[in-house]
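User: Quick sanity check before I run a bigger batch. Here is a single chain. Can you write out its predicted 3D structure?
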Amino acid sequence: MNKLSYNEKSVIKHIYPINRQAFSKLIEQLQLKAYSNSTIKTYSIEFAQLLYFLKDISVDSINSDYIKSLFVVLY
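Assistant: Done. Predicted structure follows.
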């Protein structure tokens, strides 16, 4: 995996440890698929916002029912 950029390092500090590996894995997968730096930046920012919102809930435990319940609460 390539080194994380400064921007990614600053973002990952705000993600709970339980989800940091998922964030790094996303970056790695996008790089392996040769996505552009701009796309990687956009996807990683959006994913980081989700992870920040989840706090200490593992992203691996999220399913469609959980997301639907969030929409009910948020809207």
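The chain has a mean pLDDT of 86.

User: Great, the batch can go ahead then.
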